[in-house]
Amino acid sequence: MDMKEIKTIAKEKMNGLCALCRNCDGVYCAGQVPGMGGAGSGLSFQRAYQKLRDIPLVMRTIHDVTEPVLKTELFGLELSFPCLGAPITGTKINMGGGVTEEEYCTDVITGAVAAGTVSMVGDTGDPACFEFAVKTIRETGGKGIAIIKPRSNEEILKRIRIAEQAGAAAVGMDIDGAGLVTMKLFGQPVGPKSLAELKALTSSTKLPFIVKGILSADEAKLCAEAGAAAIVVSNHGGRVLNGTLAPCEALPEIADAVGDKMTVLADGCVREGGDILKYLALGAKAVLVGRPLIWGSLGGRKEGVQLIFETLKNQLSQSMILTGTADVSRVDKKILRL
Ligand SMILES: Cc1cc2nc3c(=O)[nH]c(=O)nc-3n(C[C@H](O)[C@H](O)[C@H](O)COP(=O)(O)O)c2cc1C
Question: 217-225 and 247-258 are packed helices; what angle lies between their axes, rounded to 10 degrees?
């Protein structure tokens, strides 16, 4: 299968919910939550897209970088390149039901493993979703990360135990899901956390605990104080609050504040390899990719997801050669014109 075929099939299956626009910038799908878009008028999604594209890469070709090092290590896992699958749920309400929740989890976990990386899997109002997520993690021998909604601590702790038993590489919480409309639809209470509640969660497990959905340096510091192993600088694909900062705008200050204390990951509008390189230059250790994996799963199942990852990996390698970047662990900010 090639990318064109995958996108054609995915577009058909999406039934209008996603137009697979040439520029996946949040304009066509503005306001479609549930759906594939961003919340409200779609400003958070659109800003995440535009601000990342507004940062030019400085091309350099007089150097000796011909075989850049893409491999990295995260939570004890060796990754073929610094890009993970983002947790995504709601195949029926968001993607039109072209794949089931179970099929989606299987595709993103096995497709990531085939490309030498890992995916996060999510939690939603439908309890079956988390069950499928951990089942797939178990079946792949722990090559997956479980991200839990900010439910009551009691409910989160139950799910952490289940993820531990499944052998998950790490667990975490999408804390920015605190006001999600989709959770309300299912009658499942979620909300923000106090520092004490956050500490109780991180100290409840030996697994690395990730807080996903941080956009300010002061909250990143609180996550470090609470004992989180990592944060994801993210605005949840623009789906939770209209009008936020773009993750790429918030990242440098956050990386400066906590980069030596915890792992900093980032996501939002990674559409090509150069986008990954930009996030690394701004201070992330690795990125998550979201919507493109949905196209991969709907258009080509595991093979489609693998192709999305492999394409990003090849483009990242090209971008590194053309900016003189030898190793993903040492990306110089000078490759960006800020
Ligand atoms: C349809 C859809 C469903 C999502 N579901 C979840 C979820 O259950 N948990 C979560 O932490 N993030 C969820 N996200 C956010 C992604 O994990 C990620 O932060 C975001 O999609 C990254 O931006 P990108 O899609 O532009 O790459 C979802 C995103 C989309 C588009």
Answer: 40
267 CA → ligand 1 middle, Å? 9
Residue 99 domain flag: yes
CA Rg, the chain, in Å?
Answer: 18
Closest ligand 1 atom to residue 87 Cα is: 17
Write out the residue range of the structural domain in which residue 88 sits: 72-330
Structure-token match 């790490």, residue found: 170
Q: Is 268 in the pocket of ligand 1 (CB under 6 A)?
A: yes
Q: Residue 187: pLDDT band by 50, 70, 90 thresholds?
A: confident
pLDDT of 324 above 80: yes
Does 26 sit in the ligand 1 pocket, CB within 6 Å?
A: no
For residue 33, is it within any domain? no
**Residue 57 covered by a domain:** no
Distance separating alpha carbons of residues 71 and 119, to the nearest angstrom = 16
CATH number of the domain that residue 91 is part of: 3.20.20.70
Q: For ligand 1, say whether the CB of 88 is within 6 Å of any of its atoms.
A: yes
pLDDT at residue 61 in the model = 98
CB of 89 shorter than 6 A to ligand 1: yes
Counting the structural domains of the chain, the total is 1
What is the value of pTM for the model shown?
A: 0.98
Q: Is 114 within a domain?
A: yes
Q: Is 85 in the pocket of ligand 1 (CB under 6 A)?
A: no
Angle at 313 between CA 228 and CA 38, to 5 degrees: 60
Q: How far is the CA of 292 from the centre of ligand 1 (A)?
A: 11
